[in-house]
Design goal:
heterotrimer; A mainly alpha; B mainly alpha; C alpha/beta; B: mainly alpha; C: 11 helices; globular
């Protein structure tokens, strides 16, 4: 067993962190824009993994595994998860937009359960875990005493590209500006002529598709997928978003990488600790710095 | 000069008991139905206690089954040990009741610990933290080899029967009703309605928020103990997030803040689950449609979504049936 | 001259870098109706929040009947004898009007949770007392016809009276009214003025109120304090204060006064 803080662990942690980051971004964006903790977000991750699985076998009829196919599969994973996210928003969350927040929260739990059990109950998707196909050939490199696979590079690369794309979207495009406006003040944005519901729908699309990408990466890296695979990663990614400051985009990324490394190192030390570390982090954050590392203080008007 | 007030709840309870007992003795209800009725009553306790925390006090607990798990494991361990050591101890039932109550106390302590986050956190965050606590309890139980870890606590003696479960359920409802319809209960309701105003009306909101968790956890611990002694096993997966979600569906469908609603929902949904299971089995075996029992859960998930979308307040809303309302002098 | 019921000494409060209240020093004499006025955002509600313990002042002392209550939790301050109403009504909507008031009597009961479970005679007796006291207040506030109605169904004017009744149910020595006349028409405002006077006389409380309604303030307040940007700009009898130049400037702007 390597030491707890070795390069190997750090690398593994970064890899895990990249996947958490993509999920956490979706959580934080949705929370920023509608103040909803979308419990079903982890299941968008799962949908992405299964969409990727299905896409692989579909494309495999006329394409060999490899870079080109992988790219198409990624698109399908993102599209599939993004679509489900938009559907969930349209039918389950939008009607409750102006009702007490707890209703939306409970509905999100319902959507989460629905996705999990639907995938579990459908015969050809089924409850049993499935092995994810080897989309790209796995190659190992030995760098500085650590075994690093090309999957690590891919995970980090895909995550980085998507995150840069998101930053550009938010900072440079009109839609991005609209998103920022809506997240600050929905009503004012409406009065400025912004189609708020369209912006919210788009946010769900982006958030969901990122989770879907994470699903593909997870399927690739930890090649077993099953309908309940989204529960724990979803929860941990949420905690990561809270750690970084819920609603804060760079915060989500920061929190995710911290979470990934912490989890990997904790598991190396003791598997029970590894299971529990996420909750320990959550409790510490909520007690000591509820607004997260990069979060801002919000004051309630009494 | 009070006119005689009919103890409506006692009468309703007695009628229910007598009718069911009669049906059992005459063989109309076989063992299978009795099990379903027993489970329904246990879920009545669970739903009512979750309602106390979520519906009455306005907090948000997502790990409620964790309290039941503590009750199940503590009481199950006690009876397993005692009866393994000396099989026919005089006063069997007394030991059973004692074990249940000890399990409930342990659950109450856990409720006290979980009550504290509720002081600083609201809505969404509280939900996640209570969910986390529920999972932590499950993980801990999964890792204690002494109580069977991932392989169940086995061989719990079967003490739960219709009468025992009925008595515990009846008393839980009576006690909860008494609490809610007292000034303590009104203090808790005021926290739900407007916490700041409640504090400024002199209510020690800290005390009552924690109290909600403690009382809710205590009785949930009783339910867990009863369940363990009915099924004769206890396993961490029985008390995970999904069990807690089913409870949530019961409380919301029945009506947040209505004990009557929880009772109705617990019975309805337990029977519905059985009905669906039988129906699905029939469809699969006789007609050949390849569907599994997960479809029950798909239906429940849809039920939850529909309730939240179209009838958020649930079947009863916040109203109580006349049977459960304590009559008061009018002006 | 009796001791002041409330004595604020050197009280300042900052929200981060923003000064909300700066070096307040004033006393509210017993039995007086004391008004606090000022433009929006001047720190009036913050002052109320500081007195009732919702915020702890960054500096200073708040002496209530001689005792420094800084740092105490709000519900304890209520027990000591300060009650308040809110600018935006904070009613328990899904409780009946009577129950809204009963909640405020709860802290006077001694029966614990166990006696409520078992409905012991001592518990039942206390509950009846609470009920009777609440009904008395209902009658006093002319809300008898609404006693059993859900509070959320009551019209605005009656809700304001209900909030005052709820505050009085805690048997306060000092009652803080935060814009009690907000949203009222002239007739309702006049009725409210009479009500506040009655409350002061019959319940022997000191009234400290925030209002924008000048007629209301000059009509019933015996002393008035004017603040702006967290600082006191005038204090004294209403008729004097209204004519004070600094006050006029604060409300109407410099130009309006100079011209």
């Amino acid at each position: 067993m390597g030491s707890v803080f070795s390069l190997q662990q750090i690398v593994n942690g970064l890899q895990l962190g990249a996947i958490y980051a993509l999920i956490a971004l979706g959580y934080t964006m949705v929370y920023g824009i509608v103040r909803l903790i979308n419990f079903a977000h982890g299941d968008f991750f799962m949908v992405g993994a299964f969409a990727a699985y299905g896409a692989f076998y579909l494309f495999n009829f006329f394409l060999p595994p490899g870079g080109c196919m992988a790219f198409l599969v990624l698109i399908m994973a993102m599209a599939g998860a993004g679509a489900i996210a938009m559907i969930a928003n349209k039918f389950a969350y939008r009607p409750l937009r102006y009702k007490p927040r707890l209703s939306s929260l409970v509905t999100a739990i319902g959507v989460s359960m629905l996705l999990e059990y639907l995938f579990s109950a459908t015969p050809f998707i089924g409850p049993s875990p499935r092995g994810f196909p080897e989309l790209l050939k796995k190659r190992m490199f030995l760098i500085g005493g650590a075994e690093i696979s090309n999957y690590v590079m891919i995970d980090l690369l895909v995550a980085a590209v998507l995150m840069i794309g998101l930053t550009l979207l938010i900072q440079r495009t009109p839609m991005g500006k609209a998103m920022r406006a809506v997240s600050q003040d929905k009503d004012a944005a409406k009065l400025m002529g912004i189609d708020v519901e369209k912006v919210i729908s788009f946010t769900f699309l982006i958030g969901g598709s990122f989770a879907g990408a994470a699903g593909l990466l997870a399927g690739l890296t930890y090649p077993r997928i099953q309908p309940y695979m989204g529960i724990l990663p979803g929860l941990k990614a949420f905690i990561a978003a809270v750690l970084g400051g819920i609603g804060n985009v760079p915060g989500a990324v920061l929190g995710a990488f911290i979470m990934g490394i912490a989890e990997t190192c904790a598991t190396a030390y003791n598997s029970l600790l590894g299971e529990g570390i996420a909750f320990v982090i959550l409790i510490v954050v909520l007690l000591l710095r509820p607004n997260g590392i990069l979060g801002e203080k919000t004051a309630d008007k009494i | 000069m009070d006119k005689f007030k009919l103890p409506r709840l006692a009468i309703a309870g007695a009628i229910f008991y007598a009718v069911v007992q009669l049906l059992i003795l005459t063989g109309v209800l076989n063992g299978y139905f009795v099990v379903i009725i027993n489970r329904s009553m246990i879920f009545v306790i669970l739903a009512a206690t979750l309602n106390l925390i979520n519906g009455i006090t306005g907090q948000f607990s997502l790990g409620h089954m964790g309290f039941a798990a503590v009750g199940a494991y503590v009481s199950g361990t006690i009876t397993t040990l005692v009866f393994k050591l000396s099989p026919h101890v005089f006063g069997d039932n007394l030991i059973f009741v004692g074990a249940i109550l000890l399990g409930a106390c342990a659950a109450g302590v856990v409720g006290f610990l979980i009550g504290f986050p509720s002081l600083r956190l609201k809505g969404d965050y509280l939900a996640i933290v209570t969910l986390g606590f529920g999972e932590i309890i499950r993980t801990i139980l999964n890792n204690i080899a002494y109580v069977g870890g991932p392989r169940c606590l086995l061989g719990i003696p079967k003490f739960s029967n219709f009468t025992v479960i009925f008595l515990f359920t009846f008393f839980t409802i009576v006690l909860l009703r008494n609490l809610v319809q007292s000034s303590h209960g009104r203090a808790m309701l005021s926290i739900r309605e407007n916490e700041l105003a409640s504090e400024l009306a002199g209510v020690d909101t800290t005390k009552y928020k924690v109290l909600g968790f403690v009382v809710g956890a205590f009785f949930a611990g009783i339910a867990g103990g009863l369940l363990a002694h009915l099924l004769q096993i206890a396993h961490p997966t029985q008390y995970g997030f999904y069990a807690s979600s089913i409870l949530l569906i019961m409380v919301y469908a029945g009506g947040m803040g209505s004990l009557t609603g929880s009772i109705l929902a617990a019975f309805s949904l337990t029977f519905l689950t059985e009905g669906l299971r039988v129906g699905i089995d029939w469809l699969r075996d006789s007609v050949g449609i390849p569907i599994g029992t997960e479809w029950t859960m798909v239906i429940y998930a849809l039920l939850l979504i529909f309730v939240m979308l179209f009838k958020t307040e649930g079947f009863m809303g916040m109203r109580e049936s006349k049977i459960l309302i304590i009559e008061e002098k009018h002006v | 001259m009796s001791a002041p019921v409330l004595s604020i000494q050197g009280m300042s409060h900052y929200f981060g870098g923003l000064k909300a209240v700066s070096d307040f020093n004033f006393e509210v004499p017993e039995g007086v109706i004391y008004g606090l006025i000022g433009p929006n955002g001047s720190g009036k509600t913050t002052t109320f929040n500081l007195i009732t313990g919702i915020y702890t002042p960054t500096q200073g002392k708040i002496l209530f009947q001689g005792e420094d209550i800084v740092g105490q939790k709000p519900f304890r301050i209520v027990h000591k004898g300060i009650a308040r109403t809110f600018q935006n009504l904070r009613i328990f909507g899904n409780l009946t009007a009577v129950d809204n008031i009963r909640v405020a009597r709860h802290f006077t009961t001694k029966s614990g949770v166990f006696s409520s479970f078992l409905r012991l005679p001592s518990f039942l007796k206390e509950q009846e007392e609470v009920r009777d006291e609440a009904m008395e207040l209902i009658k006093l506030m002319n809300l008898e016809h609404r006693a059993m109605d859900m509070a959320k169904n009551l019209p605005y004017g009656e809700l304001r009276r209900l909030e005052i009744a709820r505050a009085l149910a805690t048997r306060p020595k000092l009652i803080l009214l935060d814009e009690p006349a907000a949203g009222m028409n002239p007739k309702e405002t006049e009725d409210l003025m009479k009500l506040v006077l009655r409350v002061r006389d019959e319940f022997k409380v000191t009234v400290f109120l925030i209002e924008h309604h000048m007629k209301f303030v000059t009509g019933i307040c015996e002393r008035v304090k004017v603040i702006d940007f967290g600082e006191t700009i005038a204090e004294g009898k209403p008729e004097d204060v209204v004519k004070d130049t600094k006050v006029l400037e604060a409300y109407l702007g410099r130009k309006a006064v100079v011209c």
